[in-house]
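$ run holo --ligand "D-ribose" --emit tokens
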Amino acid sequence: MTEIIRIEDDPARATNAALSALRRGEVIAFPTETVYGVGMLAQGAEGVQPLRELKGRGEDKPFQLLAGNAKAVENLGLQLSARAEILVRRFWPGALTLVLSDGEGGTVGLRVPDHPWLLEMLRQLDMPLTATSANPAGCPPAKSAREAYEYFEGRLNLVIDGGEAREKQASTVVDVSGGGIVILREGAIVKTEILAAWENSMKTKTIAIGSDHAAYQTKEELESWLIIQGYSVKDFGTDNENSCDYPDIAHKVTRAVASGEIPRGLLLCGTGLGMSYVANRQPGVRASLCWSVEVARLAREHNDANILVLPGRAQTMDALEDILAAWLETPFSGIDRHQRRIEKIDEK
Ligand code: RB5
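-- output --
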């Protein structure tokens, strides 16, 4: 016998019933701001068996976790890259599932939903809920309590009714476990919104900058240009036109970018060659020596280049500014084949 409780009639009763059922180990159906979900409190891989059986889903497909706030990331010991943090700040609570690294070679999908009743229930639960959309594998997700009830008739003790789903699409799933942004499923939040969020955040981010003596003047001018454009700049030298060794500066900038301390870097020397040799030895750095706007654009779109290298002595200031602007403003495409290739770069 399935009990259906309408949130509208008595929100506290709905919360208490959900909490009790979950703590007894039952699977319940509930509304989210996207489609309806089914979920349970599960411990480990074995623990999700009832949910797997209900859903009729194979072992290979993972479930996601729903949490009451972003602190769950820390509590679960998950790793949040600088990129993931930007998405968390922009989209949580909301229809974005982030696939995060668990630090042990595995991943976990986590979301903080933007549904007032569910959020409050999750906060009281104080543990993440293992969940999935309310539909048997291969069917479209339920958009109302009635649909969820009909899908699982007689197999659930409790369905929480929050009315029609506000958003008829499932959450957007973005894999940020590898440091990049890979859109695994485009759902309620469109892909361009995700990529724009990252690019806009660059405006409030710092650019690490460095040059040798040959491009010192150019560096100073581009630094002023960046500040006028609204970027903040961390200057790693050199500080005058006295002869110096480009690797000394390149190491400082690449370390700052590779460690995640600063998301992007700009390096200059006479030809750009010396700086790019050094920078590309640092795992996680993709330094692109760009001589044209088109190459700068492709370096972002295809290679997600995190360092731009410019030939200070071999281009006009106008040309360098145009190349820099293209590189700053072009988002990574997020397309799977490009992400796959990027992931192979540091393979030995
Ligand atoms: C300095 O003269 C010059 O060799 C350097 O700026 C750079 O072009 C090296 O690759």
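-- notes --
The chain is about 40% helix and 20% strand.
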